[in-house]
Records
---
Amino acid sequence: MPRPEVMERIPVDDEYFLFRSCVASSKYPGMESATKEVFERIGVGLTESDDQTCCAGFITFTSVAEVTATMPAVARNLSIPDAAGLNTITMCNGCYTFLTEFGHFLQQNPPILGKVNEMLGMVGREYTGESQVLHMIDVLPKLKDRIAEQVVKPLKGLRLATHYGCHYLYGFKKDAIDDPFMPTVVEELIEVAGATPVDYPEARTCCGSGLTQVVIHKEELALPHMKKKFDSLKEAEVDGIIVVCPYCLTILDRGQAKMVDRGITDYDVPVLYVTQLLGLAMGIDPVRLGFGANVTSAKRLLEKVEKLGGANA
Amino acid sequence: MSKTEARKLRPELYPKLRDLTFGFVRDLEKCMQCGKCVGACPAAALTTYNPRRMIHNIKAGNLEEVIESEELWSCFFCSTCYASCPRDINFPFTVAMLRYASIYAGYGVEYVKKIIPYAQDYYRRGLTVLQPEKNPLVIGRRRANSGTSGQMADIREQMGMPRERKISAEALAEVQFISDVSGMTKLMKDMLKRRDAGPKSRDRIEKVETVKSREGKFAGFPKEQENA
Amino acid sequence: MSSDYDPTIVGLLCNWCTYAGADLAGTTRIKHPQNMRAIRIPCSGRVSPHFLFTSFFQGADGVFIGGCHPADCHYTNGNYYARRRFALMKSLLDFVGVEPERMALEWVSASEGDRFAEVVTKFTEGVKGLRRPSALKRDGLES
Amino acid sequence: MRKVGVFVCHCGTNIAAMVDVAKVVEESRDLPEVVFATDYQFTCSAPGQDQIKDAIREHNLDGVVVAACSPRMHEPTFRNAVAGAGLNPYLVEMANIREHDSWVATDRDEATRKAVDLVRMKVKKVAKLEPLEEIRLPVTKKALVIGGGVAGIQAALDIANTGIDVLLVEKEPSIGGHMAQYDKTFPTLDCASCILTPRMVEAAQHPRITLHTYSEVAEVSGFVGDFEVKIRMRARSIDLEKCTGCGDCLEKCPVKVPSEFDAGLADRGAVYRPFPQAVPNVPVIDREHCTYFLKDGKCGICQKICPTDAIDYSGDDEIITEKVGAIVVATGFHFFDAAKYTEYGYGAYPDVISWLQYERLTNASGPTGGKLKRLSDGKEPETIVFIHCVGSRDPSKGFPYCSRICCMATAKHAVIARSKLPNAQIFSFYIDIRAAGKGYEEFVRRAIENEDVQFIKGRPARVLSKNGKLIVRSENAFTGRPMEVDADLVVLTNGAQAQDDAPELALILGIGYDQYGFYTELHPKLRPVETNRAGIFLAGMCQGPKDIPESVSQASAAAAKALQILSKGELAREPQVAEVNAMRCTGCMDCREVCFYTAIEEDEFMRRKVAKVNPGVCQGCGACVAHCPDGALEMKIFNDEQIHAEITGLFAVPSAGAAGGGGAARE
Ligand SMILES: Cc1cc2nc3c(=O)[nH]c(=O)nc-3n(C[C@H](O)[C@H](O)[C@H](O)COP(=O)(O)OP(=O)(O)OC[C@H]3O[C@@H](n4cnc5c(N)ncnc54)[C@H](O)[C@@H]3O)c2cc1C
Ligand SMILES: Cc1cc2nc3c(=O)[nH]c(=O)nc-3n(C[C@H](O)[C@H](O)[C@H](O)COP(=O)(O)OP(=O)(O)OC[C@H]3O[C@@H](n4cnc5c(N)ncnc54)[C@H](O)[C@@H]3O)c2cc1C
Ligand code: SF4
Ligand code: SF4
Ligand code: SF4
Ligand code: SF4
Ligand code: SF4
Ligand code: SF4
Ligand code: SF4
Ligand code: SF4
């Protein structure tokens, strides 16, 4: 159940700064495109900037660059929305974690903040910390009514599972918008889209990468773990999995394909970012939602949706 | 921890370790060895990794044993343990800190070497994950799904997006400048050196001291900026 | 003034802890300097600021206040008030020129006879180390 | 001027060996107040005391200084001695020249000088002492017991059996508390209602006990021996006299509300009694749910049915005022909300239940008649998992403390499960087993060894639901490996916490509570049932987690403490109390903030607000005296003037030439 006290703290603005994610831009650009389309329909502006770089969280949490060394990079990125006077929406659990945790760290360590701002000053920037960093699923629940108004194609009969990812709900166990073990915000959004949320036992289990395992360690840890999750999903017989993080999307989507290739399993369940789902319900052209970047096939799901469209029209 | 011989506890070492790593190690004192993290931990379910045991080992002063272990690199970083922990111990963050310690002590480089190119990309291009896809299977599947070449640039174009995500030239210059003055560039170079040097000899106690002196460096990092 | 400076110290000791601790130091015959004259009070929280002023104006070279350890106060939180007030008194007396070494607030429990002797010795040595009476006493004598 | 006598004791050689006693006597004589001074071998002995008495009579002394051992040792002795000679006992002081001097000094001259100083200080103080009387307070011979659980019932019976009247106030419609909900009790497994119900009836029928159920304490004023309490009696809507407890009304009420007593496993009507053996056995109408009250007089079925015309919808809450001499608080505990543990799925999965629900499920008079079955499909569970420490030892979600009873209660639950389901698999996941009590460890061993209960060390991480089974995921810390159990029933031992309204009641009573809401005892070891407010005592779980034997012992202890007050016609106590000088008091009431015992009240003096110390409540700490910005507070025996006299006395050396004075003279 969403936490009312956190809900209350989430600002509803006319315009936000959209913090782009490297993973999304380069592997699943449909996330960005779908997000922009959806926000346009619900009348909320999104500002982007080519000055914004990677959040640098990945190299930090994989132990390559030290925490304190990446601090100025965080501050530089956040100085952009600070200057624009906008609150920031992140699309990725990782960006959210990194920007939030390090923003807090800077706010609580004025001497370091001072040094960081001195460095930024040399390139004409300043980090004030005024821009509040939000997660996509902080904001969407607050706009549920406006989303509902735009749903022209309720996705009736579509059975959808969720995967929230660990780095938002688990990492912020007391401050996240929803409970880490029984969250429902995305389920509620699925219902707004007219589809049916489906529970499965391993719903709150990590995707299997946990940031590092598939990259820096060996796959033999990640794949058996993933198998556990997908076995549980298979029993639930779903049409798709809704995620709120591009990295989860990457891992679940490519991991499936990898397991098929290795003959471990035989799933082909498409993985969708939450705004891609809402986009479908709003009748946005699937091509513009970018399912072409998926490695698993979204074909069956889209066909189902297509049929619905006919019935609803 | 992978060792099987009986080990002496080194409680006298613990006070030395306690103040390392932004207080994360100190936080471990709160652990009551309840094991809730282990039941939640995906890595523990698959390997001999056991966060509860690891915490106990650190508290017993056997940090060297932890930082030289392979298990340190098994953590998924999923934070499930943190979400579950009745004492709010943020173990994955502690692991991150211990991994630095491991690298500085010459143990963990092999596990992170695949990441180094990403860090280089960040420095050169402002992004850690870049667009070009090399895996033919992935491209093939995408081609089948999208009716394009399966190349990301084409898929982006199909959606009306620029063929490649741009980072402004100013931004790149800024990132590089900041990286240089904050000492990050140097850190990355150090990492390259370590990678090329390969695993080092394992003089444990000395390594722990090295970790400590790294901490000293943290406090001094703005100084490097003056030198710059 | 020279090394035979033999200071007079006023002790304000809480009945339940430090006074009893001093008793125990006696019962167990732990020798220590005899410069302090103890006054029994119900609780360190009873110490009014003017007890210190009077003492110094009258010619005391030091004032030692003893109470129960935090969380051990017989009256639950008298020693917290003592601590708060003591900080205030200390800065006031500092202002009129009384050295901080001349004042102490220590926690000694009824079972800490050895600790009593120890802190009193330390305190007495500290006052002796100043080698001359307090400013208030000197001024008082001049006027 | 006072006429002071000084008596210097040798204490055998204890003092005399290090202190020149004769010299101390001699120097004392030089003090203007001293009219008589002498020494003696053992002043505390009978002849020593006689010496004092004789001197008082002979020299008309009106002040005495005994230079001897610590006052903590012999002050009462010498107070008695002077009283024997007709002198007010509060006009004697002791100079401690043994513990503080002869025993710790190394130099005879120095020790003698110190003794002279100490005597002079005391002489100056004695000159300022005033004769005092013991404080005497009247006592109302009646007790109030708040809370009618096993602890409250015990305290009420213990007091009433000495012939003293007791008011027993219980919030719920019936007394009995939590114990009434259990089937069996550890470690002996005797039937809870078999041992509790007779006591409930005894309390209800006791000629000295007045029961006020469905009532709460609204206000308490006054002080020890003489409290005035206001009790709010909620409108029961059913006449206690007319109702015969036939229960006809209960059957027909159309309203269905989950029964609190059955932990939500069964329903009750708006007119209800918590359980069939309720005491009193008279139902109440719960106005928050009754249709008659919610919908302007619609319904009224129960009134039509009642054969004795006992139902009356018109009454309102009533407030009665009573005088009592002592109060025992026994308001017990309630349960931690298990739904906060979303990882265990309480509330989401029907077969994850709380331990109170388990008690009701296994209780022969419970909603299933004692049949242990799943709530989802009514099947007998084949695998049962108990999870310890839910809400306890968990600062993240619950409380850091250990609830103390749940390891044992879980062992009991497991044994009960075994007796009902001989073939079931029973697991109990714990962090540590806390079984410190008489027969407790043995009981747990019995569960493990004889009843085949698997106790596994490890706090479970998740309970998942899959195809009607519950998957419990945990570490088995013995092997260091994670494990899973496919369970049919999961029981959460959601620990004990203080009553939600505990702080409010504490405010009404003026007693302290800790950060969790448990009432604080005056001293954890030596005054475990007293509170900071004299005359108010604690019993049972309201003071902290404990089991039934401890609750009952504490209740008897609280009763004994209350009887110390109630058995007397008057209370006498030392006059070491604070007093407000109303002329000086500005009424800022700062003093009230520092008084831990809430002894300071507002008063009026010449149409101004001023502070007033209640001498019955004041414990004589002096915090307020030191705190008052206007010097309006004074304290008996240790007033400012007296302490100043001691300080200045130290430096008031009789004549400039006299040897051996204080530091000032040695300059
Ligand atoms: C599941 C479970 C099983 C247990 N099994 C055992 C066992 O087998 N053996 C054992 O020794 N112990 C057992 N215990 C412990 C036992 O329940 C307690 O020790 C005991 O109930 C404490 O008694 P009490 O009178 O202090 O509190 P309670 O039983 O809680 O009684 C308090 C009473 O005060 C009333 N009250 C509360 N607030 C007010 C107010 N403001 N005004 C008036 N009245 C008020 C309440 O309505 C209640 O009637 C168990 C505990 C639990 C949770
Ligand atoms: C090592 C240790 C440390 C402890 N520390 C703590 C602590 O820190 N805090 C705490 O709360 N508890 C502590 N305890 C527990 C505590 O000691 C007991 O709870 C407490 O002493 C019990 O008091 P008692 O009066 O019942 O028994 P005892 O202290 O044993 O007193 C019994 C008295 O009866 C006398 N006696 C015996 N037989 C007879 C007879 N036939 N006739 C006449 N007299 C007799 C004995 O000589 C003795 O004086 C500790 C216990 C131990 C063993
Ligand atoms: S599910 Fe995987 S990618 Fe997603 S947040 Fe968790 S670890 Fe990160
Ligand atoms: S859950 Fe927390 S307290 Fe328990 S063993 Fe793990 S780290 Fe320690
Ligand atoms: S963060 Fe690491 S230790 Fe914690 S649960 Fe995940 S894998 Fe296990
Ligand atoms: S009047 Fe109220 S209590 Fe009586 S039967 Fe109707 S609803 Fe029930
Ligand atoms: S029907 Fe009347 S007499 Fe019978 S229980 Fe109800 S109120 Fe009492
Ligand atoms: S008694 Fe046992 S179950 Fe209860 S809180 Fe303490 S350790 Fe946990
Ligand atoms: S602090 Fe002093 S002046 Fe103020 S109300 Fe109390 S007694 Fe009166
Ligand atoms: S002396 Fe202590 S107890 Fe008495 S009124 Fe003053 S503060 Fe309260």
---
Amino acid sequence: MSVTAVKESSMVNTASTNGQMPRYEMHGKKATRFGFGEGLVVLGERYDNVVALGGDITGSVMTSYFKEKFPDRFFSMGITEATATLVATGLALSGHIPFFATYGAFASCRNTDMIRISMAYNDANVKIGGGHAGISVGEDGATHQALEEIAIIRVMPNMTLVVPCDFNEAKKATIAVGEYYGPCYIRFGRSDVPSFTHEDTPFEIGKAQTFKDGNDAAVIACGPMVWEALVAAYELEAEGINVRVLNMATIKPLDRAAIVKAASECGAIVTAEEHQITAGLGGAVAEVLAQEHPAPVEFIGVKDTFGGSGKPDELMEFFGLTSKDVKAAVKRAIARKR
Amino acid sequence: MSVTAVKESSMVNTASTNGQMPRYEMHGKKATRFGFGEGLVVLGERYDNVVALGGDITGSVMTSYFKEKFPDRFFSMGITEATATLVATGLALSGHIPFFATYGAFASCRNTDMIRISMAYNDANVKIGGGHAGISVGEDGATHQALEEIAIIRVMPNMTLVVPCDFNEAKKATIAVGEYYGPCYIRFGRSDVPSFTHEDTPFEIGKAQTFKDGNDAAVIACGPMVWEALVAAYELEAEGINVRVLNMATIKPLDRAAIVKAASECGAIVTAEEHQITAGLGGAVAEVLAQEHPAPVEFIGVKDTFGGSGKPDELMEFFGLTSKDVKAAVKRAIARKR
Amino acid sequence: MARLTHKTYPLATGFHGSSRPTPSPELMAKYGYADFKPFSNSADHSDAALLEIAQSIRRDIIRELVEAKSGHSGGPLGSADIFATLYFGGFMRYDVNNPWWEGRDRFVLSAGHMCPVLYATLANAGFFPKSELLTLRKFNSRLQGHPGRDMGLPGIESSTGSLGQGLGIAVGMALADKLVDKNDRRVFSLTGDGEISEGEIWEAAMIAAHWELDNLCMIVDRNNCQIDGRTEDVMKLNPVGDKFKAFNFHVIECNGNSIAELRHAFAEAREVKGRPTCIVAETYMGRGVSFMEDDYRWHGKPPTPEQAEVALTELV
Amino acid sequence: MARLTHKTYPLATGFHGSSRPTPSPELMAKYGYADFKPFSNSADHSDAALLEIAQSIRRDIIRELVEAKSGHSGGPLGSADIFATLYFGGFMRYDVNNPWWEGRDRFVLSAGHMCPVLYATLANAGFFPKSELLTLRKFNSRLQGHPGRDMGLPGIESSTGSLGQGLGIAVGMALADKLVDKNDRRVFSLTGDGEISEGEIWEAAMIAAHWELDNLCMIVDRNNCQIDGRTEDVMKLNPVGDKFKAFNFHVIECNGNSIAELRHAFAEAREVKGRPTCIVAETYMGRGVSFMEDDYRWHGKPPTPEQAEVALTELV
Ligand SMILES: Cc1ncc(C[n+]2csc(CCOP(=O)(O)OP(=O)(O)O)c2C)c(N)n1
Ligand SMILES: Cc1ncc(C[n+]2csc(CCOP(=O)(O)OP(=O)(O)O)c2C)c(N)n1
Ligand SMILES: [Mg+2]
Ligand SMILES: [Mg+2]
């Protein structure tokens, strides 16, 4: 199917979907880690059994806010990600709600056995915050650019995994994760990214949110890629292509119904994540579709390579993680419709 | 599509595929770990820069064979899975070919950060052997039943992941992995499982092998589930359903062409693995199909729960990992064909 | 301000839809389990009384294992005196009728593979009927091959089985008690000696000392054995006491097969202020069974029925 | 029997299809890099000569960082004397014209974030032109924010950046040299002090001592600082020397900002037989720059252009 053909066929749906949803606009930029930090403070204010553990980078992952406000409920663990996860488990098995945050590379990899056996198999109410997600970390380079957490966390039974899309959602998601029972992982980023959701934008663990309607194709995205998807979708609208944008903030438990609905109503899917293209959100979506509603999917993500140093924007472009890439993927996906 | 309809439509293909391939028969039972142990000895005989590291369970993961034969090239690391992986890296960066084996739960989870940064990012020629794969471990219970390695290893760039199906293949795969450059993980099991491949059965890293032809559906399996798939396929043949069986011994790099071919020629796929149903072989197959050839897939695997103690057979049945389950899944998959 | 609580004990989920295994009446009769009366927990027990309990635990370990046909004999037998002293000598507060009682002291078995001794101890204390010991490692048993909290067995505070993790969990519990809830509960944790080659043991030790968790008492079962051989051959651990001293623990070295020495050790640990305690308990693997004693090959093997019979006659 | 070898050095893959960044001629002129002559590596250097090299390294660290606009100042400046002594005092064998020479001694920077000092050291030795220092942390630079072996920078033996890993790699290298290849190469590794709270450090230490790797010399940069504050506040590490002694290391405690003491330490380490050596080098974070010295807030910050100018005038 040529691009022209795409345009024509997509015209059919334009009227029915246009203008039904509020258009998201960027209102400033702020890293999602600040939402995590603020959300944790809200939890600290609400519940006196919320505690936090530090991994020597409290000022980077913003547990510093909690530490300042609730010094009696903050405990430094030094640089011991594996054991900090265990200490958190001990706190959880004592009825507390411990948050331990560090860079995602270490929050998901240095302690994987601890997440599996002590946290998940125990069904312990531990909350892990993984910061510095994705290659938008920038100059620190590959070792610090966590691109594997979605695969590692979602394969673990009992785990809940949330990847908020902007500052506001990160704050809401952190609070929700704190109030939810069970072992949870929340993923957030270092660099400033567009803020576009509002205090009243709905967020619920386990529910995808439709951020833009459309039936020509659907982009299922998480984290800051949701904004890139929206930009792509708005631009494509001008070309007469109506793209649905789903914010899949919860990777586990996955909103399977929303994915199947998107595939059956749109017939073509694009997934977008700041993560390896392997076994991540794209993989999760592909699994659901293979089981319930086969459909063409184009994957946006890092193509099975490590990151590297550079400016965040430079890297996002080099690794193909911009709205431009989403746009091209949407066209490829539509061209694959039958 | 009803089962009757399935039978009728599948009849069409019977003639063209029947009898073209040798029928695999069980010739005894032997755990794949013994193949790993023997393969490692062959490597030791061939190359004097092959060395092995022990993790205090050499008699369980059969590095004991190498230790006995080449005591000067075997080094005990105590119980330090994370650092054993690092020591292996140092050996690899010195031009050696180190094998470190322990239970898969610890070979992939206790050292995940080390696999990611020291082994994979370094592109170091380290070989990890992960034993006690799957719930067929039996009585030791959930902590020791590794069900997450495929997801964890395949998300890492540069890694090669091999999951042999029986004793003979485990031996061949171990030798191949030793002679192949790059960071590799080989997964093998504790309990005796049917031996059915032969010395001359082809094995190549990165290539799927067709173990049975058929065009009504294809089962893509790895590890001991390949045998379950064959049993299911032979039984279904008697019912007039011709099932292709692919032995996907290499999960990474994945033989994408074989998967696409299976989907386009059979139209319905079943994946079977002794692994979580999430992000494993099923996920890998679903990713390829979503990108290249959408098709219905039924997943056989552990359904996102932890294992537990019991006899291996009892557990395989409870967790739905028998030929009976594969058979039912094939019928479901065919029923979903359009 | 509120406390957000979710009911978490007991989980007891197990294998959904499957029933628990039950031993046959014949088996129960064979071992005389039907009319067993649990032992009490009291500082008044004589050393001889505690030794008797230790031997009862040992006999139950043999019975568990011979019925399970797989599992770990050596470490459990070697550490039975530690468990008898800790659970029955008045050093740990617990209520078998209310196993999740908020005021209880807690025990985390870091060396999860040694669970047969913990299960036997709990049964001897009356946490659950002894008959259940005969379901060890069977499908859907609450007595998993390695402790599984999902099974909800009273007295099991945490799943363990991956070496080096339980101590960190115990540190978290001790931190919760001392610094968050500010109560006087105590936390105990036992590690194998091979286990202390895991780096997380040293991370946990550093954290416990940093936070001055004097309500934490860890015990190292120093039996000089692990799976592949003698510990000093597999991975040199000595000097164990000096290591924990350098990590700012109060260290007590004692004969871990002597009830009298263990009593002193636990009593001393209770008085220590400002730092956690590590009891390095020198034991013999397989203690009490002549053909198992001090032999690392018994780390992870059950006795045959014939061996079990001999063992039971020795363990009186 | 054969040796199976695959060409592995240099990798130099980088970002496929992208060109390397190059600093402008103006910048090179500003720092006088064009006519720099590398320093030699020799036991004959006086202490004063080595100190001069250390200061040259320090100036280059400032230049790297001010151009990169991000990165770590404190640790690199504090440890420059260690690098100057090790690389230029005749303690390490290497050939800048044949960086992957089989006979070379090796250095693994376990504290990967401290790479600006390693890069500056390598440039001062002539492994690559100084101009490349000005590409630190830029897109597709061989000078990654944390060492990346994929970039193929001469002198970088391993990717590092996840704390606690480099030492284990160094142990593997030392094991390869001493016990497999049976040659006389030596391996050095530097860790931060905060870094030693990672358990893998203690696993690696245990393994090194078990295998009596006297060809391994580790250095702890004991600056008492880490990101969140003073080490003893973030996680108590003292007594550091006793810890390594209990882990069977030969321990040398010295002033890590004294060339004379460092020389003695490295010379002593070379003579030790039967056990690995740990040099606990007491340093000041940010050493040499008045407004950075002993201040943990300079762990991971670059100087502003104004601060850099002041720093460069102080570092003469
Ligand atoms: C992380 C991890 N690695 C390996 C194992 C396998 N394993 C179980 S017990 C054991 C030996 C433990 O030795 P020790 O602590 O001395 O116990 P003992 O043999 O004295 O009972 C090993 C290696 C494990 N359970 N967990
Ligand atoms: C495994 C891991 N955890 C956390 C970090 C983040 N981090 C980088 S440097 C650092 C502090 C290290 O302290 P120290 O070793 O004393 O180095 P110094 O601050 O003295 O340079 C931390 C926590 C990391 N790089 N790796
Ligand atoms: Mg032992
Ligand atoms: Mg420091």
